[in-house]
């Protein structure tokens, strides 16, 4: 039944070629724009897939919940909360603003909060620990796409501005260039739609990877990550997403989206044509349709 519905949703969304791949990072525009993959992985280890589920693309902002997870594991809830709030901002992902009273980023899903989370990863070799963490969620060793990393690093002035702003108010207390470089690398980690489904299913399975049975995150911290994905994962489209899909989720400008039904399953979509808010057009449509057809609406 699930496989049949997945096929039908895929067919229903396939012909929509509206939107365009992100091009503010030049290398992101080099993808095949009409790739389309859809996966559903259950918390007990089944994976259903249709379309381009083995095509590599960069994780981009879908990295944010996973780096936040590692920061929480390294520093604990209270210490992380002193640096990053958990309030939706209602603003685009790259807003340059901090909370007026505390100077914290509003949440870890916008760039300022994600860069702060990256600053809280413990060393030595902080980026390797980030890569290891994502690999545990995916159940295989993930690597950086060097061309995308170089392209983002060459053009990432706005994120550098955010890093310097955070350093100037003391929210990060280490070299902002090193932290922003870590953030560029994490965004450039290459995944497939199938990887993202397993990563989402690991969140659904209380932090245990259903394929490898390895624990990637504690149950309590998984709950925190899913809560923040619910309120902040889709940025200024979060309200629309929660009302029409009803699942914790995260999107990335590489064209990926993950959505999680806690205790049950993870969904991933890859389709690089984006809407005006930076979310995959077919990704949003497929998640809406899957949620409706499988009655997944949860929050
Ligand atoms: O900060 C950036 O520009 C990117 N590397 C990540 C942005 C992103 O994926 C926003 N999400 N929808």
TrEMBL record:
Substrate binds at residues 61, 111, 152, 159, 183, 235, 253. Belongs to the glutaminase family. Homotetramer. This is Glutaminase. It comes from Nocardia coubleae.
């Amino acid at each position: 039944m699930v496989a049949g519905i997945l096929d039908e949703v895929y067919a229903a969304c396939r012909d929509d070629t509206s939107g365009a791949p992100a091009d503010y990072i030049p290398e992101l525009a080099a993808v095949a724009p009409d790739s389309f993959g859809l996966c559903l992985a259950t918390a007990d280890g089944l994976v259903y897939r249709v379309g381009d589920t083995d095509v590599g693309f960069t994780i981009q902002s879908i990295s944010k919940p996973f780096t936040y997870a590692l920061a929480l594991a390294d520093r604990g809830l209270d210490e992380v909360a002193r640096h990053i709030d958990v309030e939706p901002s209602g603003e685009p992902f790259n807003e340059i603003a901090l909370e007026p009273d505390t100077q914290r980023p509003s949440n870890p899903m916008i760039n300022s909060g994600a860069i702060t989370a990256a600053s809280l990863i413990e060393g030595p070799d902080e980026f390797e620990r980030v890569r290891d963490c994502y690999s545990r969620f995916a159940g295989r060793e993930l690597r950086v796409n060097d061309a995308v990393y170089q392209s983002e690093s060459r053009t990432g002035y706005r994120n550098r501005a955010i890093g310097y702003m955070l350093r100037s108010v003391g929210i990060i207390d280490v070299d902002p260039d090193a932290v922003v470089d870590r953030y560029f690398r994490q965004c450039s980690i290459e995944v497939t739609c199938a990887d993202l489904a397993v990563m989402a299913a690991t969140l659904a399975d209380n932090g245990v990877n259903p394929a490898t049975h390895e624990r990637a995150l504690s149950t309590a911290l998984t709950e925190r990550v899913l809560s923040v994905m619910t309120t902040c994962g889709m940025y200024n489209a979060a309200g629309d997403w929660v009302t029409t899909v009803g699942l914790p989720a995260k999107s990335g400008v590489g064209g990926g989206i993950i959505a999680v039904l806690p205790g049950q399953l993870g969904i991933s979509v890859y389709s690089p044509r984006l809407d005006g808010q930076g979310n995959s057009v077919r990704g949003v449509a497929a998640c809406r349709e899957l949620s409706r057809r499988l009655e997944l609406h949860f929050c």
